[in-house]
Amino acid sequence: MTPVPDKAAPPAAPVPAAAAHAAARAYRPALRDGVLLSPPLLRGPRTVHLIRHPVTGAAFEAGVKEHFVISRLDGTRNLDDLAPDYAARFGRRLAEDNWNLLLGLLGTRGLLDGAPDPPPPAPAPQRANTFWRGTRRLIADADATTSRLHRVLRPLLHRAVQLPLLAAVLVMVLTLTLHAGELLDGTAELIRRPVVLAAVALFLWFSITVHELAHGVAAQQYGGHVGEIGLRWRFPAAMLYCSVDDYLFLPGLRAKLVVAGAGAYINMLLLLPFGVWWFVLPADDTARSLLAGLLLLGSVQGLSNLVPLPPLDGYRMLGHALGTAHLAPETRAYLALRRSRGKAGATAAYPARARRIYTAYGIGSAVLLLLALAGTCTVVLLLLR
User: Fold this and answer.
1) What phi and psi, each to the nearest 5 degrees, are found at residue 339?
2) Mind giving me the DSSP string for 60-108?
3) How far is CA 297 from CA 93, 96, 200, 208, 303, in A?
4) C-alpha closest to that of 259 among 228, 290, 216
5) I want to staple 278 with a disulfide (CB 3.0 to 4.6 A). Which of 36, 291, 303, 304 is the partner?
6) Inter-residue contact 136 to 231 (CB < 8 Å)
């Protein structure tokens, strides 16, 4: 007998639209573990939040309304639970279409619990290193290196140790300011001693290395992740750098300010023993004038990093304090709009706070550049004399 073939399974019945609608409303999504959300950041006329994927490291911008919803996705709330809070905050109910669209975007980017990881973002194309400009990584695993340093130095990072040291640094800076004339004379004397000047230059180069490591150790103190430590050069200047991948997501303003300012602080801390030595030496001691030159050069190197101009640490600190992102480029864009003719109301979209910040920073940065130029010329002339 010829076997009778099995009957084909009947096609699955389509899910009724009403059932799909009910399932979507009942869905209680949760962000996957490790997703980082930044505090609000002013960027141009908008306020944005950054969202960082814990695996790929990709960061996305979200508006205030989107962040309001995303920050509440803990697996216990559905659309009906969130809608009243959303309406109370923004004066209108959260539309179901917008809810579904937002969840779709979060799922596509792998930010929801259970969603697959998206492919890692393609690395940005890098320019080939040349004699004139380039970048080179110096430490294979910067995060592991700074983590080890942090474990060793952790007892010294306690507030009971750091507050007296910070007070001593401030006293030293004030004392050096009151003896600026002696420091200039000592620098002129130092320049006439090539061997000693070379030793001072070597010390200052060492302090630059410690400066970058200090950023990494401070980031480890607050749970940050150090992505890279390397050398960046733009002929004739060369400088080390330390990139903290998630510094914008560190908890609280204080953590961000400490991480950004740690380099300048450690530079001044390294000068503290020399400052004490200089202070106790007699006025006619030859070593005192050489130490004065070291203190002036080292102070300029350390404190100049606190000037709020890019790419200096002070620029990052100011951005953190103001809660802004890309302060300098956004200032240029705003001022360009203000100068443009035939575009009446081009800056109307900027809130009052943004207009004040960008105007003040534009004026302040121009004044700082003029002061820096005038100060440099004055010091050169005094040293030549």
Assistant:
1) -80, -20
2) EEEEHHHHHHHTT-BSS--HHHHHHHHHHHHSSPPPHHHHHHHHHHHHH
3) 61, 62, 9, 13, 10
4) 216
5) 291
6) yes
Contact (CB, 8 A) for 291 and 199: no
Residue 281 exposed, middle or buried by CB count within 10 Å (0-12, 13-18, 19+): middle
* Spatial distance between the Cα atoms of 385 and 305, rounded to a whole number of angstroms: 28
3-class secondary structure, 35:
coil
CB-CB contact of 375 with 300 (8 Å): no
Task: Using the structure block, give the residue that is written with the tokens 């960046």.
Answer: 232
pLDDT over 90 at 354, yes or no: yes
Nearest to 275 by CA among 162, 163, 186: 186
Q: Which residues contact 215 (CB under 8 A, 6 or more apart)?
A: 226, 242, 244, 259, 260, 262, 263
**How far is it, in rounded angstroms, from Cα 347 to Cα 333?**
10
Rg of the chain over Cα atoms, rounded to whole angstroms, equals 28
Neighbours of 130 (CB within 10 A): 9
Single out the residue of 68, 69, 48 nearest to residue 59, CA to CA: 48
| Whole-model pTM over 0.90 | no
Q: Which helix (H) or strand (E) holds 239?
A: strand 237-244
- Give the total residue count for the chain: 385
* In contact, 304 and 207? CB cutoff 8 Å: no
The single-letter DSSP state of residue 305 is G
Q: For residue 145, what are the contacts with CB-CB under 8 A and spacing of at least 6?
A: 139, 216, 226, 229
The dihedral formed by the CA atoms of 102, 104, 105 and 109, expressed in degrees to the nearest 10: 140
The torsion region of residue 323 among left (phi > 0), alpha (psi -120 to 50) and beta comes to left
What is the token pair recorded at 113? Answer: 């619990």
> Who has greater pLDDT, 238 or 229?
229
pLDDT tens column, 217-231: 999 999 888 988 888
Answer for the pair 242, 226: CB distance below 8 angstroms, yes or no: yes
Measured between alpha carbons, how far is 26 from 332 in angstroms, rounded to an integer? 47
